[in-house]
Amino acid sequence: MIKKYLSLTAIVSVCIGSLALVACGGSENKAENKAPLESGASELTNKDEFFKDREQALKQIFFSIPAPIEMADMIKDAGFNFDKSMLNSVDKVAKYVDEENRAINLGIYAADLSYSTVFEQKQESVNYLAASKTLASALGIEAAMDEKFMERVQKNQNNKDSLLSYVTLSYQNVNAYLKEGKRTDVSALIVSGAWIETLYLSTQYAGKKGEKAMKQRVAEQTYSLDQLVNYLNLFATSDRVNQMKEDLTRLQAIYKDVIVVKGETSVEKDNTGVTSIGSTETVTMSDATLAKIAAETVVIRNKYIQ
Amino acid sequence: MKAYKILLFLLVFIPSFASAQCKPFTKNKVLPKLNGYVQNDSYNSAQMAPGEDAELMVTFFGGRDYRLLVVAHPILGEVEFTVSDINGKQIYTNKDAQDKEAFEFKMKNTQQLVIKIKVPEQKDAVVQHIGCISIVSGFKQ
Question: Global pTM?
Fold first, then answer.
């Protein structure tokens, strides 16, 4: 009993110590500031710490491939219907027990959530949000989708625009908490999972006979894939990221058959003053390449959703 | 055993929460400026110092309309941002633009564009400050 009491005391002391360190850092800042600063700015007090590995840090933060919501929107734009059978079941959420699987499947659920929301499947959207929240909590970022957030989603689930903004906000929150918590590699796995699921959904539609629009979108993913692999290269020391990189590199080898003919960019303004950006660059691929991409995407996806 | 797990959790995550600084800035000061466009990226916000620069490559899809935002905390001054194609041909600069933070455009074809940001130097500043910068893009549904 005494032993238990002592160990608990030690734990509480360390925790208080940690909090005190954080708090002291804050008060030191406040004391040195000449004027109070609103949120989003602070005095640069520790230059060595701030500029340490700065180039690498900025490269890890500033990275973008289109979020799953946009590809889902393009599937809808192409005139397709919602197909629940393609999605990764929310019932599997408890099966994902290690950090890597949780992160990748959080990305996969984020893509399924985006797809369900774009197609206005309210109940599916709520289910996928709940599954995403479970995984976010397991990853230690429950604040990204807290109870208040979920209550607001429930209240606004009949408003399509509100639901859409909550879905994009949840994806941003998750990545924000991870990036600002210096867990950028976990964020990279989430983004990779979301990209794979989005590609999987797209290839399922693109493979339909005579379908051209989605086939084109799948071919254009060559840009995002190259960017994603380059991004994962920034985390060369992380085994879990390397595993994902190996999978994507196999896919990249198939994508080499996508033909990109470089061209010139043109810029013009229309009558309303809006800029139009064009290019003579073309991206094409054969049905055989599409079939290979689709097959490899299924292999990678199945490996992670089991 | 349970107590040790709690300790581990606190030690790992207290510093994480403490370093979170640009999320509220992005949510409150940047996202409302999307003006109805649907956000289509993950999270590209960081605290930057005077004189620093950064770049971001983004794929924009053909046949779609976009709004690109580069919003910086006022303490950093007027941040310059440019948009170029992959070969370095400049498409846009906010230098002479009325709206220094937003660029709306239509994409005829899918292509990758490079967004470059540059925070002005503050050579005479007695106290140097860092501030948040967010790059956010959205598409029109």
Answer: 0.86
